[in-house]
Amino acid sequence: MTGPGDTARLARTGARGDARTGSPRRADEGRAGPERAERGRTEQDRAERDRTGQDRAGGGRAGGGRAERSCTGPAHGVAPEGRPAVLPALASALARELVRRVEEDHRATAEAYGSPTPAARNRIARCREDNAEALRTIVGRHSWPAADLVGTPASTAALMILLHAPDLDFQLACRDLIAQAVADGRCPAPHHAYIADHCAVEQGRPQFYGTRVDPATLRPYPVRRPGTLDERRRDVGLAPLDVQMRALRPGG
């Protein structure tokens, strides 16, 4: 699970970028991210095949090859995975619902920190279960709510909901959809880094980008190939790890 610091960092990553929290400094870095993220996923694929002998990697994608950008998206009347295009009014409603649900999570979490009772913890659990179910419905009908569909803030909200979802299989499936959305330029590259690292840690594997931090030690969970970590982070638009860690320290 992610903590409140992770949630705030993600909000800044997707909504406007903040170098102190490991997110892109400029909006154009988010657009350049897909090509960089593709290189990161290639390394993930190689590492995973080396470890397990299988083709499915920690940052891989569902299905076969990449969808052609020329025949996807609302402008062409067909959404990714062959789903009908979403009308603007529905896309706006989806965006508002995603943001509203994350705000509910924030309120429940703040109340639990102020009064850490079993009842408060149960409210957080129920809230996150409900949010995950709502996101599952959205994904089932429209695929992943990428930035080109609902806007970057709402797509970031969807990612926050996903990271708190109590269902690893669902997270893995969405990880692959996010990877494809990043490759197609429809989603910020850091989104894939966060969900790929989250799934790796949950599976007991080293993470690739160092975005998942152990709340007990305030240090990243084990990272694959630490010597090239900052290069991988740069490739997806994240600041160096020491910048991220300074932001997590008191007064950072």
Write a structural description:
It is a single chain. With 252 residues, the protein is mostly helical. It has one domain. It has ten helices and two strands, in the order ααααααααββαα. Strands 1-2 form a two-stranded antiparallel ribbon. A hairpin with a 4-residue loop joins strand 1 (213-214) and strand 2. Helix 1 (4-15) runs antiparallel to helix 6 (152-163), helix 2 (27-52) packs parallel to helix 8 and helix 6 (152-163) runs parallel beside helix 8. The longest helix is centred in the middle third of the chain and has 27 residues, at 88-114. The protein is globular and about 45 Å long. The model is unreliable at 12-37 and 49-80 (pLDDT under 50).
Using DSSP, what is the number of strands? 2
Q: Helix and strand succession?
A: HHHHHHHHEEHH
Q: Profile the largest sheet.
A: 2 strands, antiparallel
| Beta-strand proportion | under 5%
From the spread of the alpha carbons, the general shape counts as: globular
Low-pLDDT stretches are 12-37, 49-80
Radius of gyration: 17 Å
Question: What is the SS-derived class?
Answer: mainly alpha
Topology:
Layout: H1 4-15, H2 27-52, H3 88-114, H4 118-142, H5 147-150, H6 152-163, H7 168-183, H8 189-202, E1 213-214, E2 219-220, H9 229-235, H10 241-248
Antiparallel strand pairs: 1-2
Helix pairs in contact: 1-6, 2-8, 3-4, 3-6, 6-8, 7-8
Which structural traits does this protein have?
mainly alpha; 10 helices; globular
Summarize the structure.
By secondary structure, this protein is mostly helical. The protein is built from ten helices and two strands; from the N terminus they run ααααααααββαα. 40% of the residues are buried.
